Amino acid sequence: MKFLFDSDTWQEIYGSIRKNKVRTVITIIGVLWGIFLLVVLLGASRGMENNFKKIFGNFATNSVFIWTQSTDTPFKGFQKGRRFLPTLTDVKILKKEFKEIKLLAPRSQTNGQIVKGFKSGSFQVSGDYPVLDQVQKKNLIYGRFLNENDILSKAKVVVIAEDIYKQLFEKNEKPIGQYIKINSINYKVIGVYKESTSINFDGECAYIPFTTYQQVYNMGDKIHWMMITANEGVDIKQMEKDILLTLKSLHKVHPDDKRAFGSVNLGVEIAKFTGFLTGMQFLTWFVGIATLIAGVFAIGNILLITVKERTKEIGIRRALGATPKSIRQQIVLESVFLTTIAGMLGIILGALVLFLIDAAFGQGPDATLINPTVNIPIILIAFTTLVILGTLIGLIPAHMATVIKPIEALREE
Question: What would the DSSP string read from start to end of 47-75?
């Protein structure tokens, strides 16, 4: 290891780089560009992944949402265009027949005029069971969400969105225990939730117990739609098909009717996006590593040219007693030095660009690339790989230098 601290070795490396300034700069840029691309693309990919998690963060991602529309095929005496609603009986049957179902939340919704004192507004009113809080977690800032006692007692209680609270209540006014009117009926406020920045099907909503909604709006056994979450490892796409087929059978709908039921399979949609992210990460690694290798080969080429130009000098050194090992070490060290400098510059520039991307696109509620960063272990692996490649590629010109015979080198013009 003495040669690492030998001033003559570093002077020779400096002299070699100085003689080939343009080629050296181009070579460094080639390697720098490779690791720079790798850092920026991996960081951007992470930013997209974080944004994706933010969008779907409050939802059980293996969920299916199902509602009814109108039939497009006559069946068993029913005409085309028949409209109907799912029922609580459907919910019970699905829970019994499908062991794959983890959570099932029947839901009913309408628009309502909400009033407090002289303030009012039109908002969505939703009749729900407590299970909704497990399918789509509510970030409560005051009070609590609906519970089983509210359902059993058909309590006239409500959980409201923060925007409803701000519109109806005075600033810093305590909402819990106060009453508001929804379509002329008094409800006691038991909770206020902060609307999520993630995907939201309800918007600014007031949640009341499902049984209360049934009674107030005379819904009977009917519901408007349902949210279903599957157990881990379940084929969510196949479960959706099986559930729709069962519902068609229960409501005497033709098995091939494509319009009678509407559905959104969140699991399938998420799988598409995660597949895109995986493909992007693979492409990022491929492009980054390919560019790195190209840059490292460029270093090998410039060192080969350098060895060719220094043939006479190497011959003189050999004639004066320099060993093949010392010459080999110098050339390999020059290769490692160039790749190390290029790698460090690439990482620094990549980090700077990611900082600028975060400042431009990663802040605020409409952020598209959230916290675009790269894990330090990945950076260290990429950098170590770069140095190893630089060492290996340096062995080629080093070998070429050591096979030159002193007498032939001295004759070289």
Answer: HHHHHHHHHSTTB-SSEEEEEE-B-SS-B
Q: For the residues 113-127, what does the mean pLDDT come to?
A: 93
% the chain with pLDDT above 70 = 80
- Give me 80's structure tokens: 């085309």
8 Å CB contact between 183 and 113: yes
CA 134, CA 149: separation in Å to the nearest integer?
17
The two tokens of residue 375 are 């894990």
User: Looking at the predicted structure, is the pLDDT value of residue 3 above 70?
Assistant: no
pLDDT at position 281 is: 79
Token pair for 13: 């490396």
- Look-up: residue for tokens 């979450």? 229
- Number of residues that make up the chain: 413
- Beta bridge partners, 193, equal 140, 161
Q: Give the number of C-alpha atoms closer than 13 A to the C-alpha of residue 377, restricted to the C-beta side.
A: 0
Q: What is the pTM of this model?
A: 0.67
Residue 378, pLDDT above cutoff 70: yes
C-beta separation of 306 from 22 below 8 A: no
How high is the pLDDT of residue 13? 64
Residue that has been written with the tokens 């977690």 in this structure:
137
As a whole number, mean pLDDT of residues 324-337 equals 73
> Encoding tokens for residue 283?
């492409």
Which residue's entry shows tokens 């560009």? Answer: 33
For residue 117, report the phi and psi dihedrals to the nearest 5 degrees.
Answer: 65, -120
- 299: tokens are 């270093």
Per-residue confidence band for 5, with pLDDT thresholds at 50, 70 and 90? low
SS3 185: strand
Question: CA dist 363 to 281, 354, 368, Å?
Answer: 23, 13, 8
The DSSP letter of residue 263 is E
Write the DSSP assignment of 267-312 as a string of letters. Answer: HHHHHHHHHHHHHHHHHHHHHHHHHHHHHHHHHHHHHHHHHHHTHH
DSSP 252: T
Place of tokens 């007498």: 407
Q: Where are the beta strands (DSSP E) in 129-184?
A: 139-143, 157-161, 179-182
Dig out the tokens for 360 from the structure.
Answer: 């431009």
